[in-house]
Amino acid sequence: MQNSKFQYDLIVIGAGSGGVRAARVAAGHGAKVAIIEEERPGGTCVLRGCVPKKLLVYASEFKKQISDSRGFGWEVMDFSHNWDNLNLSLKKELDRLSEAYKSMLSNSGCKLINGAARLVGSHEVEVNNKIIKSKKILIATGGVSYVPEINGLRENAITSNEALKLSKLPKTIVIMGSGYIAIEFACIFSGFGSKVHLVYRSDLPLRGFDNEIRKNLEIELQKKSINLYPNSKILSVKKKNQLIITLNENNKIIADQILAATGRIPNVKKLNLENVGIDMSSENSVIVDKNSRTNINSVYAIGDVTNKINLTPVALGEGHAFADREYGNKLRYFEYDNVPYAVFSQPPVSAVGLTQEEALNLGYELDIYSSNFKPLKHTLSGSEERSFMKLVIDKNTRVVLGAHMLGSDAPEIMQSIAIAVKAKLKKEDFDLTVGIHPSAAEEFVTMRTAKN
């Protein structure tokens, strides 16, 4: 497979989830593979995103769980939290995961090169002042946090990277944004006892999600005493003894910390792509075809750097399919329809398929089924938290177009519902399925009356 003028069959730039999967599968098919990583193997999800953030979600929930337990007769005395111990536990786990990624790459026969890579030709990559040549190059560098150019914001704000390793818990924090990262961190810090101010430009949190989910999430955030500032902009940030955050209409918030959770952009700044002639979108993402190939035949890209569906399982699927096609003689493509997703808010949100608004915009006639209820647990816990579920049905074919949930265990429940939606099952298939009682999940198979 290897051409004598090339040192490798494949160079992968970025040892995150997608890049590592592509490298390992390609090597398994017999390719000679090098993978270049500027930091530690593991990438955003494992080291700076999904995994540590989910662990912080778990950590922040215990206070509420102790409160809920009192309604069931438990008496808990002297319950306190040690922030330093949490940070130490997190560090140990992330170190373990990074070493595990190193081992996976080594065991699969891939060569790991530590350094910053830049393309210098259609087959050439420069790293550590050396040029290495490969028959093909795969860009899998993911995304980086974006901080808007607002007076004083970049000098004073932290991003999700720093939020995962703060030396101490802020008493008061302003979070700018209302997407996945903003909502999750708002709940995390609130759970630990911080006073949280959530500032966002839209009317409701989680733009792009089903509107009823958004409205119900807003109610749950308010129940957690998170201060919401919809339709608001941050105009400036000044630091004196504390941070002074000025909003539109001259509203001011005094805080210890400000987190800019305003999205992520493709991580391409150091790659020298424009000078090599690779086509980029207006959002600075790498443009690829269905084969993950750029306009240069030997250069490919997968994952968040292409700005399609920015989820770890998508990058994994794209990377695996790429390696199978290019080195395994398998004509396999990742399918982008009906990808399930979740927000680990408290309570969490999860969904698969079309929202009601998307379905209507596509011209579907709809039947909508929904359920809003207090979970059985909270009939004794005293918590006012509620759950909301929704099915979006094509009125003519009865096919389930989308499923949406806000409530405890939503991601775990939605994973199974996603199979049904992916299989294009009908509402009657849900109706014929026996519910597991008593459970929240049974609501998805017991909704009988369309609300419209």
Give a structural overview.
The protein has 452 residues and is α/β, with parallel strands linked by helices. The chain has three domains: 201 residues, FAD/NAD(P)-binding domain (3-Layer(bba) Sandwich); 110 residues, 3-Layer(bba) Sandwich (FAD/NAD(P)-binding domain), CATH 3.50.50.60; 105 residues, Enolase-like, domain 1. 32% of the residues lie in helices and 23% in strands. The strands form five sheets. Strands 1, 2, 3, 4, 5, 6 and 16 form a seven-stranded mixed β-sheet that branches. It has a five-stranded antiparallel β-sheet with strand order 17-18-21-20-19, with helices on both faces. A hairpin with a 3-residue loop joins strand 11 and strand 12. Helix 3 crosses helix 7. The radius of gyration is 24 Å and the shape is globular. It starts with 7 loop residues before the first strand and ends in a 20-residue tail after the last helix.
